[in-house]
Amino acid sequence: MRVAVIGGGAAGIFGAISAATHHPGAEIVVFDATRQPLDKVRISGGGRCNVTHHCFDPAELVKNYPRGSKELRGVFSRFQPKDTIAWFEQHGVRLKVEEDGRMFPVTDSSSTIIDCLLTTAVSSGVQIRLGARVKSIAAIDQGGGSLQYEIELDDGPAGWYDRVLLATGSGSHGYRLAQRLGHDIVPCVPSLFTFKMTDRRLDGLAGISFEKARLTLTDRTHRKLEQTGPLLVTHWGLSGPAVLKLSAWGARSLHRDKYQAELTVNFAPDHHPDQLRQLLLAFKKQHGRKRVVTAPVFPIPRRYWSRIARLSGVTDEMTWTNLTRTAMNSIISELAGGRFAVIGKGMFKEEFVTCGGVNLKEVDFKTMQSRLRPGLYFAGEILDIDGITGGFNFQSAWSTGWIAGIGDRTSADPPINWGRPQ
Questions:
Q1: Within this chain, do residues 236 and 220 fall inside the same structural domain, yes or no?
Q2: What sign does the CA torsion over 285, 286, 291, 292 have?
Q3: 391 lies in a domain?
Q4: What HEC string does 38-50 produce?
Q5: Are residues 299 and 399 in the same domain?
Q6: Is residue 85 part of a domain?
């Protein structure tokens, strides 16, 4: 059997390794258009590579995928983060878990992951051809419902293959190859991005962060999305885990609305507004001589507290004793529900993620095989699947690549013989 893998990213290389594992003796060739495979692995996590997430319940794991959660439920029942951890440990790479659940190699270097994958692929007999851009894939009917695939590169023919795995990521070229083979492509739009805004409450405050805030995004159809988590002020607006999660879940509606929306921020999500009032009144009674702008009541950045106090009419010399009811109401309103106008988007570092891709209805997720073209498989970001930040997109790549490498349903999964970490 001859297997062609188009794309030398996480899903492609892992899919090739899986194919070599499950089909000893098969000829497996990875075609990658670049000169540096696994480039996205290299830059992930600031160069540390966020390999996966410490979540071992498939039902909970799929909640981190705005698109593809239903389809991934069965996939994760067969290959999930425990299996990813165990696979890398079996191949000499230990992973560690951080407080937020993200998992990295103990070396804190993406090169550790890259070296492991490439060494394993080559030692398994996988051929990796770099600078090999696939120009076309022709499906030729062999009769009896089977197909063979003729691959042509920019510089000439690359031969015939019994199976093809398309794992080209979110690049437009891979989508065109899939379309030419009859597949529908759900239009791609950005996911995982920051919010641009121009607001005097944030001017000059880049770098301050809030440990916990509740964000509510309202689009032009009055649809509301909500996320709670850390928040970061940037030079261009707001970022942080809560914003990135909102951007993923609201990717399509925000794109439709040209990234114009209203964002309401509750900087004290653990307190009802009435509780906030009582806390402020109690503080006023106990610390009446303190200046308002320099004595925040809540554990929020002092610079932000001073900003909203001044914008609420508080002078620099005003003490808590002299704080007016009007100023207090304004401060409470800003803390419990400050409204900001989103006017655009930025990119989240180098880790650009899109939603969109091959229509999931056209893929059999028991095998990752095309429902339209026998012998054609998909894995990774070429599919209309995307996760939030935290290692979820890589886990989708490992899982779909592993299953695609197994092949059709008649090829039963061999026992996974590595220990499952607790």
A1: yes
A2: negative
A3: yes
A4: CHHHHHHHHHCCC
A5: no
A6: yes
Domain CATH for 137: 3.50.50.60
Region of 361 please: left (phi>0), alpha (psi -120 to 50) or beta: alpha
* Residue closest to 5 by CA, chosen among 145, 195, 169, 242: 169
For 8-23, how does the pLDDT look when each residue is reduced to its tens digit (9 = 90+)? 999 999 999 999 999 9
Contacts of 278 (CB under 8 A, 6+ apart): none
Domain range spanning residue 234? 193-347
Q: Work out whether the CA dihedral 171, 17, 161, 408 comes out positive or negative.
A: negative
Cβ(416)–Cβ(380) below 8 Å: no
Q: What is the total count of domains within the chain?
A: 2
Helices (H), 110-171: 110-123
Give the angle subtended at the CA of 369 by the CAs of 367 and 375, to the nearest 5°.
Answer: 120
Spatial distance between the Cα atoms of 209 and 233, rounded to a whole number of angstroms = 6
Contacts of residue 65, defined as CB under 8 A and 6 or more positions apart, other chains included, come to 72, 385, 386, 387, 388, 392, 396
Rounded to 10 deg, the angle between the 392-406 and 10-22 helix axes is: 30
Joined tokens for residue 321: 């004793």
Given 311, 326, 347, which residue is the final one in a domain?
347
Q: In this predicted model, what pLDDT tens digit does every residue of 134-184 receive, in sequence order?
A: 999 999 998 887 899 999 999 999 999 999 999 999 999 999 999 999 999
Radius of gyration for the chain, computed over Cα atoms and rounded to the nearest angstrom: 26
Q: How many CB atoms lie within 10 A of CB 395?
A: 29
Same domain, 309 and 380: no
- Whether 416 is covered by a domain: the verdict is no
Beta bridge partners of 404: none
Residue 8 lies in a domain: yes
Distance between CA atoms of residues 34 and 14, nearest Å = 17
Write out pLDDT tens, residues 353-404: 889 999 999 999 999 999 999 999 999 999 999 999 999 999 999 999 999 9
Long-range interactions of 129-132: CB distance < 8 A, separation 24+: 129/29, 129/30, 129/31, 129/32, 130/8, 130/32, 130/34, 130/35, 130/36, 130/37, 131/32, 131/33, 131/34, 131/35, 132/31, 132/32, 132/33, 132/158
Collapsed DSSP state (helix, strand, coil) of residue 177: helix
